[in-house]
Prior knowledge:
Keywords: Membrane, Transmembrane, Transmembrane helix. By secondary structure, the protein is mainly α.
Amino acid sequence: MSINVIYESVVISAFLYSIYLLIFKRFAKQQSYLYIYLLVVIMVDIIPVNYSDSFPINRNTLFLAYILFSLLYFGSIYHIKIKSGRFRFLNLALVISLLILNIYGNTFDNDGRINFIAIVSLPMLFLYESISWYLFKLENIDENKIMDDLFFWISSGILTWSVFFIFRAIPMYFLQDNDPQLLNLVITAFSVVNTIMYILFLIGLIFIKDERTSRRN
């Protein structure tokens, strides 16, 4: 079984489980509407790959759409989760700045390649938000297990993804022109990391507790 098949299976499994939580458990807020994000991933990164003839859309255009959506989605859920005025101000400023740079900036070069700003947008936001969540959690320790918090798994996933994505994306076009074999190796390694991120998301969904019940207890 190829890593791409495993990746797609994990993403779809996480999406289906999130839908189960939505329909049968009424866990929408508890999972921070993660099913919406997972649906976008399926529409951008799975369906066009497997049905490319039916979706003749440039992959870079789809990836840019994914970047814009992810900036809004993760910016919003962390803005709600981390109850810190300083974080919320900086988070809002960072999200708005990155959106403006991506929407009004020169996103593609003459060869149709995504530029540097678009490439580093998500890692910048993910690093800031995940590290901020860890710090916020350390400053606000409670009796709940950290593994029961979905954001522990989300933050762990996007932090891991961001670190590896920087090494995968920044030299991408250089390697494409000068060392395609090394680029293929880097892409394969990143596919493993990508799969790990969604496995962490799935584990986080499994550990979700009913917040209404826990309050009564």
